[in-house]
Design a protein that fits this description.
single chain; 375 residues; mainly beta; 14-stranded parallel sheet; 13-stranded parallel sheet; 39 strands; 2% helix
Length: 375
């Protein structure tokens, strides 16, 4: 027997029932492609599969209780003929280790989990079937083991101390859908990120960042980061937002190389907006900084770079409030490319767009260089 009760019609209500699979039926209740199904005061127990199977259906449960089911309490998916599915629960106890299992490999057909109350062991997504559109809206309930972050409502989190759902102040996230991770600090997101990840800022933050030995994209998402960014070996792109602080490109002395790209939609606000420097031993080892956005500050190639292959490429705008726009003081190559604008003007109305004391400067046709001197 595949199920004890099959519901395949809309607007069906089951109430005040105990459905016992007697360890022979696979599922207690299967709801197949049906909308408006209501389960009230239902116990589904002792199946070899799930207590309640929601396939491409809309099911609302109040005082739902499951136990002794081999695969878990409730399974939510789109079914073999994909149809959007929603399961909503407000009370009851799902006693199985896999209290609720969500599955979906359909990119355009969502499954939605709404939980406002009840008692559970764990609620999660089956990693083997998780590439599709999964909407989590868990706002309440008690979870002895936990609930997957991707299923918790925006602005909330699972609290392992209280085993409940509490308000959260997430400021950054990595990934989407079932793979999404959210963080209450940008520093924590950077620490958790893997090569190739994009970290998306969710709110304005004040933090200082150190980036090292990773390949990452920092999507500011239209928000503002206040603090410095020190980028060491690795490959980093900063995009789509504002940094109120200095961005450092640090040429390491260990033979490692690095690259930092400021995208066209990035704005840096600091008197010293970008600094290309060498932390130790005076060797730049090929650190590259690409400026495609706007730097409202001086760009400084520090004089402690004596050798190596450090490069600064400017395609965007440098608008310095100091008396110099680009200060080329160390051994590096600076390329001011087509479309770039470099200007400097201090509070007294003076400024050299570019100052060269060492290294190599290349300015190509199509670049705009503006200095301000005495009349």
């Amino acid at each position: 027997m595949n199920e004890v009760i099959l519901v395949s019609s809309n607007d069906v209500t089951l109430k005040n029932l105990t459905v016992d699979g007697a360890n022979t039926a696979k599922h207690g209740i299967q709801v197949w492609h049906a909308a408006g199904v209501v389960l009230q005061n239902i116990t589904a127990q002792n199946g070899t599969g799930y207590g309640v199977l929601v396939n491409g259906s809309e099911v609302t449960a109040e005082d739902l209780n499951t136990s002794g089911n081999g695969w878990g309490g409730v399974n939510l998916d789109t079914g073999s003929d994909p149809v959007a599915a929603t399961f909503t629960m407000s009370s009851g106890t799902l006693a199985e280790a896999n209290s609720v299992v969500v599955e979906n490999d359909e990119a355009s057909t969502p499954v939605t989990l709404n939980i406002s109350g009840g008692s559970f062991q764990s609620v999660g997504v089956n990693p083997a079937n998780s590439s599709g559109l999964i909407v989590g809206n868990v706002t309440g309930g008690s979870y002895a083991v936990g609930v997957e972050d991707a299923l918790v409502a925006e602005g909330m989190k699972y609290d392992s101390a209280t085993h409940g759902i509490v308000a959260a102040n997430y400021v950054a996230e990595i990934g989407e859908g079932a793979d999404r991770q959210r963080f209450e600090s940008l520093v924590a997101a950077v620490a958790a990120a893997q090569n190739g990840d994009t970290i998306k800022l969710l709110d304005n933050v004040t933090e200082d960042l150190e980036l090292q030995n990773k390949t990452l994209v920092l999507n500011l998402n239209g928000k503002t980061l206040t603090g410095y960014i020190d980028a060491y070996a690795g490959d980093y792109t900063i995009e789509n937002g504002v940094v109120n602080g200095t961005v450092y490109g640090n040429g390491l002395s260990t033979g490692e190389t690095g690259k930092l790209t400021l995208a066209a939609d990035t704005v840096i606000n600091a008197d010293y907006g970008v600094i290309l420097y060498q932390a130790a031993n005076n060797t730049g080892y090929g650190y590259t900084v690409d400026i495609n956005g706007t730097v409202n500050g001086c760009v400084w190639v520090m004089g402690n770079i004596y050798e190596g292959d450090s490069v600064l490429n400017v395609r965007g705008t440098i608008d310095s409030p100091l008396d110099v726009g680009i200060a080329l003081n160390g051994y590096a190559t600076v390329n001011v490319l087509n479309g770039a604008t470099v200007e400097a003007e201090d509070e007294n109305g003076f400024g050299a767009a570019i100052e060269v004391r060492a290294g190599v400067l290349n300015v190509v046709d199509g670049a705009t260089i503006i200095g301000h001197g005495e009349p």
